[in-house]
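General statements about sequence and structure are easier to judge against a single worked case. When preparing material for the folding task, we compiled for one chain both its residues and its backbone structure tokens. The amino acid sequence and the backbone structure tokens for this protein are reproduced below:
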Amino acid sequence: MERRGDPRPDRGLAGALHDALLRGEYAPGQRLVEADLCDRFGASRAAVRESLRLLAGDGLVVLEPHRGARVRRITLDEAIEIAEVRVAVEVLLARRAAEHITPQTATELRDIATGIRGAIEGFDPVAHSALNERLHLRIAEIADHETAAAVVRKLRTQLVSFQVRLSTLSGRAQTTLAEHEQITAAIADGDPDAAVAAMRRHLEGAVAALRALRASDGSDAAGRAAHVAGAG
């Protein structure tokens, strides 16, 4: 249902766009055409523009004069910095989640971790990615620290394209499976110190993997340059 001319912010639409970016439905650098978004979400141009403005404020979208909006492209260097910040914030959330855990939320976390194992064993990367995201965000909700949770939601969305790349690395899925199960067990058991150690180990592993990816990309680029020079 179009709401033509409606100037009010549509946070529901911004949230739907945010989720689509999180799922990787729009590639880094891809243009976000207003008419297409209006058709997809049944929204007015005014609502789409305001939602894009909100997402630009979150660093997820770039607004270019006379050219419209596109998905912000994150460099590997930026991705490493973002991942380093995540370590500090999500370690805090892991501790608080362990302090606030209840039997019901402990069961929720264990069910998500079981789902992650099933997705990996069933070779379902889409389900794996969605459940991975769900686990981290549910921990943030259980922690009951809205400021930190908002930071995590923003940072994790910015890293979505690199999370897909990391998930394809040999052995990475099994490594993260064990780490997620350790995080879940520590929080579910109400052990803040173990939760902090498990979350730190998991996220510092992601930082190390991104640095290895940067080194690999640099080697590939150097190899290509040497090949071109040799061909000349």
Remarks:
- Confidence is low (pLDDT under 50) at residues 1-10, 221-232.
- The CA atoms of residues 99 and 231 lie 62 Å apart.
